Amino acid sequence: MNKLTSRWRASIKEKYRKEKKIAIDLGATNTRVYVKRQGFEVCEPSVVAVKKDMHGNNVILAVGHEAEHMIDNAPDDIRAARPMKDGVVADYEVIEAIIRHCIGKVHNSRHLARPDIMICVPTGITLVEKRAIEESARSAGACNVHFIENALAAAIGADLPVSPKVVVDIGSAATEVAVIASSGIVCSRLLRVGGDNMTEALRSYIKRQYNMLIGESLAERIKIQIASACPQDPKQQIEVNGRDMVTGNLQNIIITSGEACKAISYLVDSIVQSIRTVLEQTPPELAADIVDNGIMLTGGGALLNGLAQLLKEATSLPVTLVDDPLSTIILGAGKALEDPLIPDK
User: Of these four, 10, 34, 145, 184, which has the most CB atoms within 10 Å of its CB?
Assistant: First the structure.
């Protein structure tokens, strides 16, 4: 009877574990979670509220939305820690905290929660970094840990044909350019330029040009509303409120789309140059397919006005902006969980 009970409990635990396979996209700004057979479940800020104890050790106070709220209203001794910086792993302790938080979010009962996890990682990540992330995930409660590169996950998530193509993923902190062929990455390049850099470039331009300080949220709004990869409507403009650096008084100025375009142009140029570099590294036998299939554009930075048109003109290749660029990677990782024919990475 005891043997039967033990086998029954073991089978229940195994069934529960298998049914709760999850994929996690640890983005620099947001973390997204996909649960097998349930779909896209969680999207939370990739931030952990950390405080030093009396011995100088980090104490994790909150994760995700709760951490973001705490940091906005907390004293100076509580800081924000993030798992990724400039497209590479920055803090494995934070990764462990976020993965543990994600497991708790999708599992109603933690004592049975030892799920298999697929983690989206930057293209070109080293074996040492993978092992460190795997160790963090296991410490957080994962049973088996698999990896899939962001570019490959994006290609799967976009539902595009398997034939060779160029994937350009512009995230908040980095841009990944990769040539995908035969369900694998042929060549790639990681550029530490993303949407956040464009936001900061707009703040710097206004500070330099008008001696005025503006907040990050306002700079983000300028980027979304009137900034573009190439000059479009020069008459488009936005009123900007900020603080004069000389007098300290509040003031209003008008920023045009032409100015916004100029402020971020050097960052856009670096993305174009990275794509050209990867195209130069592409094997000649793939050239014909690349010309036919072109570039797949994904990531939040891909929503920049005029970017698809600029890349088309700069590379002479067709450019496709995916339907949901913010969620393409996590949806692709989820499909990799669902489809046993797609190899683990």
Answer: 34
Contact between 79 and 62 (Cβ < 8 Å)? no
Q: Where are the domains of the chain?
A: 18-44+85-158+326-345, 47-81, 160-193+270-325, 195-263
Distances (CA, A) of 289 to 123, 164, 168, 284, 308: 22, 6, 16, 10, 19
Cβ atoms 134, 202 nearer than 8 A: no
Mind listing the pLDDT tens digit for each residue in 286-320?
988 999 999 999 999 999 999 999 999 999 999 99
Question: What dihedral angle (degrees, nearest 10) is formed by the CA atoms of 191, 227, 197, 240?
Answer: 180
Return the exposure string of 189-217: e unless at least 16 CB atoms fall within 10 Å of the residue's CB, then b.
bbbebbbbbbbebbbebbeeebebebeee
Pairwise CA distance, residues 230 & 258, whole Å: 9
Give the rounded distance of the alpha carbon of 185 from its chain centre. 18
d(CA 3, CA 131): 37
Token pair listed for 188: 């790639």
Helix (H/G/I), strand (E/B), else coil: 147:
strand
Structure tokens at 71: 């940091």
Which pTM does this prediction carry? 0.85
pLDDT at 342 over 50: no
Token output for 120: 């989206």
**Can you tell me which residue has the tokens 């299939």?**
293
